Amino acid sequence: MKKQFSDFYLECGTDEAGRGCLAGPVTAAAVILPMDFKSDLLNDSKLLSKNKRDFLKTIIEAEAVSFGVSNVFETEIDSINILNASIKAMQVSISKMATTPEFIIVDGNKFKPYKDIPHKTIVKGDRKYLNIAAASVLAKTYRDAYMEKIHDEYPMYNWKQNKGYPTKEHRRAIAKFGATKYHRQTFRLLPEQYKLDL
């Protein structure tokens, strides 16, 4: 995995977590890593165990030149749509960094210009560049912690386990108990074909 894409010293990687969830926010992070940063463990957060993500979160936060994390919540996701919400979360996380980046690389293929900072979108960037992988780890760990917290309010959906993703168990709970204030109302919480399985 490469450290970064450009030759700029202050290049930030940004990524989001929770885009495909039925409940909870979309959470994004932006990270600028120092030029001499090395890690054999760091990878796309989806490929790492919870213990490895938690371990890496501590290292990233201690060693990053700068980082920012941001949530966009359900009501806003419903009003501006999930793609715009994901891009907004990434841009807000960049704005929260104490250091302004000179270049931005984004996981995926969609982004909107942020200030006048040049950017590049990279499909599967979280498996190619350490700074995007670092952002993916922060986005995932912060979002998971939030979902575990709201799990206590509505334990029947088991967000502690599924983190709001559309598992069969989560859909069954929605069918039985209905949607909560944390559910995204514009998402198809119960597809028609699923009703036949109940």
Walkthrough of the structure:
By secondary structure, the protein is of the alpha/beta class. A 5-stranded mixed beta sheet has the order 3-2-1-4-5, sandwiched between helices. It contains 7 helices and 5 strands. 38% of the residues lie in helices and 15% in strands. It has 2 domains: 136 residues, Ribonuclease H-like superfamily/Ribonuclease H (Nucleotidyltransferase, domain 5, 2-Layer Sandwich); 40 residues, no CATH class. The longest helix has 22 residues. Strand 1 and strand 2 form a beta hairpin. Helix 1 crosses helix 4 and helix 2 crosses helix 3.
Pick out its properties.
198 residues, Nucleotidyltransferase, domain 5, 2 domains, 7 helices, disordered C terminus
SSE order and pairing:
Blueprint: E1 11-17, E2 26-32, H1 50-63, E3 66-72, H2 74-80, H3 82-95, E4 103-107, E5 119-122, H4 130-151, H5 159-162, H6 168-177, H7 192-195
Parallel strand pairs: 1-4, 4-5
Antiparallel strand pairs: 1-2, 2-3
Helix pairs in contact: 1-4, 2-3
Function: Endonuclease that specifically degrades the RNA of RNA-DNA hybrids.
Catalytic activity: Endonucleolytic cleavage to 5'-phosphomonoester
Domain RNase H type-2: 9-198
Can you tell me the CATH superfamily of the largest domain?
Answer: Ribonuclease H-like superfamily/Ribonuclease H
What fold name goes in the CATH topology slot of the largest domain?
Answer: Nucleotidyltransferase, domain 5
Mean pLDDT: 94
Ranges where pLDDT stays below 50 over 5 or more residues in a row are: 193-198
CATH class descriptor name of the largest domain: Alpha Beta
Strands of the largest sheet, in order across it?
A: 3-2-1-4-5
Strand coverage percent: 15-25%
Contiguous helical run count: 7
Shape: globular
Oligomer classification = single chain
How many E strands? 5
Number of domains: 2
Give the termini separation. 44 Å
Largest sheet: 5 strands, mixed
What level of helicity do the residues show?
A: 25-40%
The helix/strand class is alpha/beta
Element-by-element helix/strand order: EEHEHHEEHHHH
Taking all Cα atoms into account, the compactness measure Rg is 17 Å
CATH architecture of the largest domain: 2-Layer Sandwich
